[in-house]
DNA sequence: CAAGAATACTTGTATATACAAGATGACTAT
DNA sequence: ATAGTCATCTTGTATATACAAGTATTCTTG
């Protein structure tokens, strides 16, 4: 093998198809036999490509059925900022949300840069407060690149969270986030219904699709009500 | 195969040896041929066990040399609270630390429970402030189970961080942490040399070895100086 | 003694083959 | 028409074999 090994070439080909949006979430990918025909390799080699991509969570397989593109959700593993609606209902809470703002604005410099668009161009902005048992739990301020989600302003986010909607219209390929402790400003205090000042956990998250930066979100929660958890272990 | 497949049995055997502390960090594990002799399987089957454990970060392999138990560090992947000394030096900063306290105390209830020992029994406690360029960056208050690290009080933590020392004397098998935003109390303000109040990022971490809970640590950093980052992507 | 070659180990890649087992649709007998 | 069977697809497990390539030791040769 002068260059890359065959199984790696096949892996790369599969990833490219997914990144380019040719094969979408939950869609079937070629079977071991199809791949081995197509790439002129043995079934075991094609199998290796599929298996390794499965192990890192890009594909899922099921005996008798086939191999499928995994949902981006499952990618996330540890530092996933889980869908807050799921998180609340999962622990038996009552989840509601309020859309405080849903508009088109002119991007000031820091937002334009974070979204990779021109300064003063139009971008979409939403402000949503997530509640657990009617108490505000998290405020989500999100800026969206209109080129990649043109119908963002027409959505009903009490039914489908922005993150869920965006993963549908612009399949995610990458996400970065930072976690920090901040003091809420007045606006945030109002949104979260906080009377006395309290430190907040702020997650900043930017998401990419194959066409570019999709959105930039600030998720702010009161330190007393929200924490992130992580868990590492040896057992497989 | 009536029960578990052979490669899974071998994987389990390897994990057990590591959990039990029989095979330590960076130590060699049996080669593919040795395993295939021992378990009466083909080399490919033994290889599969080793490869899969490598892919999840439990082992590392190197052509011509052999297969080794990975360092627990590399386990961590995303939410790893990286060794702060490494983190600072890696970004070109000057790392120093001060040991403010290193003592044996009687465990009050919450600490005893977190460590899984009797209330009022003796536990070790250390308070260390980590500095970057002579500015305090993080305070680490740690409680240690003396049964699993009896010589903890004799260590020089300016040379080897507590986490590094503990992984040596009690190989880690599991870690849990939570991240939250808190307001520092007076003590912490003093430790971190903070004059005006500022929200802090607090990481609580408990670590396990095969013999039980090793330690319980609170890592507190000023929100303005420290953040956690995460990164998810499709490319392998 | 020192430099290089031979060797014996290791992991890495690739193939061909066999059978097991889950899923599905078509076909058949009741 | 419905229930069961069968054929055929899929992935899953397991083996035997071959050669490539990296590492370390030993042996040979100058």
From TrEMBL, chains A, B:
One Pfam family per UniProt: GntR
HTH gntR-type domain boundaries: 4-72
InterPro entries in the cross-refs: Bact_HTH_transcr_reg, Chorismate_lyase_/UTRA_dom_sf, DeoR_HTH, His_ut_repres, Tscrpt_reg_HTH_GntR, UTRA, WH-like_DNA-bd_sf, WH_DNA-bd_sf
PROSITE patterns attached to this UniProt entry: HTH_GNTR (PS50949)
The keyword DNA-binding belongs to this UniProt entry's keyword annotation: yes
GO biological process: L-histidine metabolic process; negative regulation of DNA-templated transcription
Record's keyword terms, sorted: DNA-binding, Transcription, Transcription regulation
Keyword Acyltransferase: no
Domain of life the protein comes from: Bacteria
MF term (GO), any: DNA binding
Protein name per the record: Histidine utilization repressor
């Amino acid at each position: 093998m002068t260059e890359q090994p065959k199984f790696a070439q096949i892996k790369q080909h599969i990833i490219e198809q997914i990144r380019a949006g040719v094969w979408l979430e939950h869609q079937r990918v070629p079977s071991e036999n199809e791949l081995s025909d197509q790439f002129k390799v043995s079934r075991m080699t094609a199998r290796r490509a599929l298996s390794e991509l499965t192990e890192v969570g890009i594909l899922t397989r099921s005996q008798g059925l086939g191999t499928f593109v995994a949902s981006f959700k499952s990618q996330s593993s540890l530092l996933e900022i889980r869908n807050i609606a799921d998180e609340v209902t999962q622990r038996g809470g009552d989840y509601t949300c309020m859309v405080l703002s849903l508009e088109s604005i002119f991007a000031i410099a820091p937002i334009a840069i974070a979204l990779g668009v021109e300064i003063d161009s139009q971008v979409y902005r939403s402000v949503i407060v997530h509640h657990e048992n009617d108490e505000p739990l998290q405020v989500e301020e999100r800026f969206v690149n209109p080129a990649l989600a043109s119908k963002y302003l027409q959505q009903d986010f009490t039914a489908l969270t922005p993150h869920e909607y965006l993963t549908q219209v612009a399949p995610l390929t990458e996400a970065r986030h930072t976690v920090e402790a901040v003091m809420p400003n007045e606006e945030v205090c109002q949104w979260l219904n906080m009377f006395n000042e309290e430190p907040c956990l702020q997650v900043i998250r930017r998401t990419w699709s194959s066409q570019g930066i999709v959105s930039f979100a600030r998720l702010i929660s009161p330190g007393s009500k929200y924490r992130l958890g992580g868990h590492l272990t040896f057992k497989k």
